[in-house]
Amino acid sequence: MTGLRIIVCAKQVPDPEAPASAVDVDPEKRRVTVKGLMPVINPLDEVALEAALQIKEKYGGKVTVLSVGERLSENVLRKVLAAGADELILVQDEGLDDLDPYSTALLLFKAIEKLGTFDLILTGRESADWGSGQVGLMLAELLGIPAINWVKRIEVVNGAIRAAKVVHGGYDLVEAPLPALLTVTNEFGELRYVSIMALKRARDKPVDAWTLSDVDVDPSTLRKMEVAELFKPRFERMCTIITGKTPEEVGERLAVKLVEELHSLRGR
């Protein structure tokens, strides 16, 4: 089979490699911000892009990257064009940040309907910010196509997709007819190196920008994620010094202390 039409769903996220000093958690607004660093493409979505590019190189076709959000950065997302994607489409409008997984899947569904026919949709296993791992499978359900998650290897065989699905202790080989959706895991490998020159050339490539009206979505049908509580984890340390006149006495007191702590933990 040749000429595959592949769609990769890519999310813009705060840099997960940001140092702790750059991360600010606002418990009242229940929001995380990264100061002084640009957002990045979700790392697992980059893996999905690498999978798409390898399929394109082997079987031919076209790779379209689709991203949705409120404040998307073209400079960040043009990396997909520098890596080898043929087309980048941004669905950008007010109120598209922090959507719940179903609303995100619905928005992607409507954008894919506008795009038209396709053979394969690839997404990352989960996002680096909320990590729900739900959007890909919800999108497949809305599209009415088969889905395989946690994929680490992909082949196209006789008009069908054959995928190695990661399971505990190994993997399963799963086949599904096209069109299909696959969520790709990190075992597939990292996105290929993107050079500075490729990034510069990508600046001149066109990017399609759509709004909610372009994809026929009523803003009132989209729901925000409800975050009950958000806070920085607190790490506490306690140091108890065990003393004694002899090593044997210190050892005995230490054993007693450990037993006391064990009983205390069991009683919580």
Describe the structure.
- The protein has about 270 residues and is α/β, with parallel strands linked by helices.
- It folds into two domains: about 5-220, Rossmann fold (3-Layer(aba) Sandwich); about 235-268.
- About 30% of the residues lie in helices and about 25% in strands.
- It contains seven helices and 13 strands.
- The protein has helices spanning about 45-60, 75, 80-85, 100-115, 135-145, 195-200, 245-265; strands at about 5-10, 10-15, 25, 30-35, 40, 60-70, 85-90, 120-125, 145-155, 160-165, 170-175, 180-185, 210.
- The strands form three sheets. A nine-stranded mixed sheet has the order 11-10-9-12-8-1-6-7-13, sandwiched between helices. Strands 2-5 form a two-stranded antiparallel ribbon. The protein has a two-stranded antiparallel ribbon with strand order 3-4.
Question: Which helices and strands, and how do they pair?
Answer:
Layout: E1 4-9, E2 12-13, E3 23-26, E4 31-34, E5 40-41, H1 43-59, E6 61-69, H2 74-77, H3 79-83, E7 87-92, H4 101-115, E8 120-124, H5 135-143, E9 147-157, E10 160-167, E11 170-177, E12 180-184, H6 196-202, E13 208-210, H7 247-266
